[in-house]
Amino acid sequence: MSTTPLVEMRRLRLDLETEAGTAHILRDVDLTVPRGATVGVVGESGSGKSMMLRCLLGVAPARSTITGSIGFDGEDLLALTAERRRKLIGSRVGVVFQNPMTSLNPVVPVARQMGEAVRFHQGFSKQKARALSIDLLGQVGIVNPERRIDDYPHQFSGGMRQRVMIAMALTGEPELLIADEATTALDVTVQKSILDLLQRLQGERSMSLVLVSHNLGVVAGRADEVTVMYGGRVVESGPARQIFENAAHPYTQALLRAIPRLDAVPKQPLPAMRGLPPSVYDPTLPPDEADRRDLERWMSDQREDDDDN
Fold it and tell me: Do 72 and 177 lie in a common domain?
């Protein structure tokens, strides 16, 4: 196996033209995804997590300008033709989105939706595509897949629909699986089962896995590397153990403090960060010294509150 990373983004920038002016969505983002590793990308809504992945997938907004580089298995995706990029990414990257009900066509049986994906990626006949679809549904934990494959999406629970989406993401036998907030709409017990499933499949298939979440607790104990985003930039990145045990940036520390704890004092409100993220229209932000001071002041206030209690 090659020792070079499967994905390597360097100084990735995305500027989006809007009626209000130029929005600086991504600001010199660096991200490395080693082969066979799990990388957690964490940050609040609007931090740029999903837009970064849209740049990788080639589905960034039409009025955007992208600079920097996105390496995938040694090729710079930004330098490829649209056709070459679709062929490269389409079969080698699988994506599981946040809401499976909007990702699946509600009026088309699962068999047809999965069959189309299998035939597109693998070139199989209808019969062979159906057989593989049934096998994939079984692999992701769908009971009686031979019967359930002919059901419509609304006949599955939220967790089962997400399993169907994971099965569809595996139809091209991807080397990279991206789970973009894949457990947000699910209850806690179903979240765990989906995360366990992703972790098992990643190990069995030796895939690289990117877990995107606003919650550090989701990637805890599952990610090898963690990247923290704030205001369109990466503010901290490193081995998961280092991030969780010795976070250096105040924003990462704030996210860690917001994770609910079993040993917390009953009925105490969770820590909350004051104010709003910096404006995407200001090219000087973030994180300049003012941002860092605000975060450090917030952390100091929280520590004082803890001491008072």
Answer: yes
As for how many domains the chain has, the answer is 2
How much is the pLDDT for 7?
96
Q: Is residue 258 part of a domain?
A: no
70-79, 177-186, 203-212: lowest mean pLDDT where?
Answer: 177-186
Q: Which residues of 224-258 are buried (b: 16+ CB within 10 A; e: fewer)?
A: bbbbbbbbbbbbbbeebeebbeebebbbbbbbbbb
Closest CA to 33 of 11, 9, 12: 9
Q: Which domain holds residue 97?
A: 7-107+167-248
- The rounded distance, in Å, linking the Cα atoms of 276 and 295 is 11
Round to whole Å and give the CA distance between 137 and 167: 6
Q: Which pLDDT tens digit goes with each residue over 23-41?
A: 999 999 999 999 999 999 9
Give the three-class secondary structure for 93.
Answer: strand
- Torsion, Cα of 87, 222, 30, 176 (10° steps): -10
Residue 222 lies in a domain: yes
Query: Please, are residues 304 and 248 in contact by the beta-carbon 8 Å criterion?
Result: no
- The answer on 189 and 71 residing in a single domain is yes
Interatomic CA distance for residues 26 and 205, integer angstroms: 31
- Cβ atoms < 10 Å from Cβ of 73: 16
pLDDT at 305: 53
pLDDT tens string 49-106: 999 999 999 999 888 999 999 999 989 999 999 888 888 887 899 999 877 777 889 9
Strand order in the sheet with 21-33: 21-33, 7-18, 64-72, 75-76
Task: Name the token pair of 77.
Answer: 């995706």
Query: d(Cα 253, Cα 251) in Å, to the nearest integer?
Result: 5
Q: What is the Cβ-side half-sphere exposure of residue 18, based on CA atoms within 13 angstroms? A: 12
Which residue is it, tokens 């049934």?
134
CA distance 165 to 173: 14
